[in-house]
Amino acid sequence: MNTRERFNASARVRVNVLDGDDQYPQFLPCAPRAPHSPPVCTSPVYTANVTEGQLQEGPLSFSPGAVYAEDGDRGLRAAITYALLAGQESSRFHIDNVTGAITLLRAVESSRQTPEICLSVMASQVNDPSKYAVARALVRVLAPNRHPPRFPRARYRAFLPAAPRRAALLLTFGGQVLALRAHDPDFPEGLNPQVRYTLSHGTNQSQQLFQVMPNGLLVAQVDQLRPGQSYRLQVLARDEESGETSNTTVELEVLWPGQAAPRDPSEPPPGRGLPAGAVAGGAGALLLLGALLLLALLALRARRRRRRQQRTADRAALAIEKHPNVVQAGKSPPSPPRLYYPNEGYSE
Fold this sequence. Notes:
The protein is an alpha+beta fold. It contains two helices and 17 strands. It has helices at residues 206-209, 276-322; strands spanning 26-28, 31-34, 40-42, 45-51, 68-70, 80-84, 93-95, 102-104, 116-125, 132-142, 155-161, 168-169, 195-199, 210-212, 218-220, 230-239, 245-255. The strands form six sheets. Strands 4-10-9-6 form a four-stranded mixed sheet, with no helix packed on it. Strands 11-17-16-13 form a four-stranded mixed sheet, with no helix packed on it. A hairpin with a 5-residue loop joins β16 (230-239) and β17 (245-255). It is elongated.
């Protein structure tokens, strides 16, 4: 400071900003509630399935993932402990306070009486229990699965006329729309709402040219197909609850524009008669039916004739009773008077 020349020195100071414990635990996967920075997460709903009357070994398998939470302060990563809040059916389950794995202790007797159980899971910081989060774990009780889904046929024939349009549904014999349905006897009318249909990967570029809809309909990009081409598609039906699968094969033939799909070869061709045996059987049945009708008609006519005769006899009897010349029984009839005529010959 007192010299003519000025001298100075500099130094670099690094300031490390530490994460403070100001965030609560968050259940994963994170579902952002709004476009905040950092994102504000809402707790997911964990779902799992159990079968009535059965006690599953090991922890339950939840979706969209295992029950798991972490500290919202990423720099601190405070340890998390788990607990089940008291509920109507919470005593049936046990939760590991370190891992969050939930285990079924007692089997559920009836899926009709208890179709589902809703659990409340609390995750809190070990060093500060006042910082916690709560998520729902939904346990669905299913009836026993005795039958896997099965396609009625192992192979289907499909046809599709080439056209310049973008997409079209695959057809089967007779021009009918091909609809694949996996039958599951565990459900009324065999319709399982949890069956999902998919195409197997890597066959004839099926993922690029074809798509299977949730209702079992197949859609193709028609403008990418050429007449005379053939494709072999593998369709999978998977029960999302039990994990059981079934598959079938669809053999597709691309037709020329305007060409109609062929008829089913198992059906009789139109315009031709039935087989001789069927014709003979039908003729015999018609003759027998005609004979029965004729006998019934004759019996009806005879019955009507007897009724007419009886009515005629009754009317005649009634007329005789009421006529004044009719003599009642037990009385002698009066003698008719003697009449004489002119020119009548007399005899001695």
